[in-house]
């Protein structure tokens, strides 16, 4: 059965700043699926290609190679007309709602626009729909008369979510939707997204650099490094028992409230990732992109790109992972409670 969203070997390149250098492969051979009603988290450090994937799905950036399909239809190079038609199925929530909401429009007008574009929706029906949407995202009716500047950051993000949901999309690309919010507001917005998903059956491609946030909302997680998938699988497996040294480093970097545990985690992180300057230098060689930072490298890691292998429900791209013994430190639980959140990843 076809997925709601499917990326197959997606590559996106950007022109290099200098004329002589090769174009940057910001996304390189990424494959993933999002099923209806599911949340797939896309996590990685800054520059790993997360937003580029989101933009390619939305048709804002061109794919250089590979295929993007939505509900079985190839949309990789969809025309503007097809994209316009897709807008009712495919929506986005960005990190900064202030820049994506029109500051001179009251919120009611912003929400009315997509509703009135729908055939057969008159002003009266749109008004009722706006009240329903505001209630769904936990805002009072009179929010419709206020301008974006009169809301807090968390409330503005609720407005952005309401606007995305106004057209009853089947998939929302959430690009760092909570990164600009304080921790307690983050939790409220995450819980809101999860509740709306349970009610409406909408799917999310949820992009964030914080693995704790991603784990809390996602059913499945895809870990990106330099545009390539390092590890993917059920959120609980990937985030609680990370196998790839890079995922282990990401998990160990997530803060925990206890300073003693934090110290132990820092030790794990140091053991997981080399932090030397030389190691931070980009490699575009034939090997594993993580090799310069990895403490487990062998010769093959420098010469050959690792192919994804399946270990239980997880897919890993690592030459050094041995399903029997793992890496020297893989599989062992990280010290202390797992990063924020009280669940073990969400069940589909
Ligand atoms: N328009 C662009 N032109 C040239 N290079 C770009 C462009 N957009 C992104 N890049 C580069 O592509 C790579 C991936 O960027 P991208 O923004 O997708 O990563 P990200 O994981 O979303 O990071 P962040 O969380 O910082 O946004 C980075 O090296 C970035 O500098």
TrEMBL record:
Transmembrane segments: none annotated. Residues 318-348 are annotated as: Disordered. InterPro entries: AAA+_ATPase, ABC_transp_ATP-bind, ABC_transporter-like_ATP-bd, ABC_transporter-like_CS, Oligopep_ABC_C, P-loop_NTPase. One of its GO terms (biological process) is peptide transport. SMART domains: AAA (SM00382). Keywords: ATP-binding, Nucleotide-binding, Transport. It holds the Pfam family oligo_HPY. GO terms for molecular function: ATP binding; ATP hydrolysis activity. Residues 5-251 form the ABC transporter domain. Belongs to the ABC transporter superfamily. NCBIfam families: oligo_HPY. This is Oligopeptide ABC transporter, ATP-binding protein OppF.
């Amino acid at each position: 059965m076809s997925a709601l969203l499917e990326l197959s070997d997606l590559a996106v390149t950007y022109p290099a700043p200098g004329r002589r250098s090769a174009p940057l492969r910001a996304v390189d051979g990424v494959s993933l699926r999002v099923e209806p009603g599911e949340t797939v988290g896309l996590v990685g450090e800054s520059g790993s290609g997360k937003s580029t994937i989101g933009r390619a799905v939305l048709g804002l950036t061109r794919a250089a190679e590979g295929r993007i399909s939505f509900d079985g239809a190839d949309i990789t190079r969809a025309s503007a007309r097809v994209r316009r038609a897709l807008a009712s199925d495919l929506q986005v929530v960005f990190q900064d709602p202030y820049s994506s909401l029109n500051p001179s429009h009251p919120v009611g007008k912003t929400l009315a626009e997509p509703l009135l574009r729908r055939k057969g929706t008159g002003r009266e029906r749109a008004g009722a729909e706006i009240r329903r949407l505001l209630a769904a995202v936990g805002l009072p009716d009179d929010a419709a008369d206020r301008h974006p500047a009169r809301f807090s950051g968390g409330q503005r993000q609720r407005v952005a979510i309401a606007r995305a949901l106004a057209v009853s999309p089947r998939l929302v690309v959430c690009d760092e939707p909570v990164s600009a919010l304080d921790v307690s507001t983050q939790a409220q917005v995450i819980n809101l997204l999860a509740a709306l998903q349970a009610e409406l059956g909408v799917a999310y491609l949820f992009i964030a650099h914080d693995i704790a946030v991603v784990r809390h909302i996602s059913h499945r997680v895809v870990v990106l490094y330099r545009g390539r998938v390092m590890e993917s699988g059920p959120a609980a497996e990937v985030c609680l028992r990370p196998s790839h040294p890079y995922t282990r480093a990401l998990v160990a970097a997530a803060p925990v409230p206890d300073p003693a545990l934090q110290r132990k985690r820092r030790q794990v992180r140091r053991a997981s990732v080399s932090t030397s300057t030389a190691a931070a230098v980009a490699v575009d060689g034939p090997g594993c992109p993580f090799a310069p930072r990895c403490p487990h490298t062998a010769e093959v890691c420098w010469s050959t790109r690792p192919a994804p292998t399946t270990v239980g429900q997880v897919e890993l791209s690592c030459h050094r992972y041995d399903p029997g013994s793992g890496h020297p430190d893989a599989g062992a639980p990280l010290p202390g409670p797992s990063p924020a959140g009280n669940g073990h990843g969400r069940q589909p």
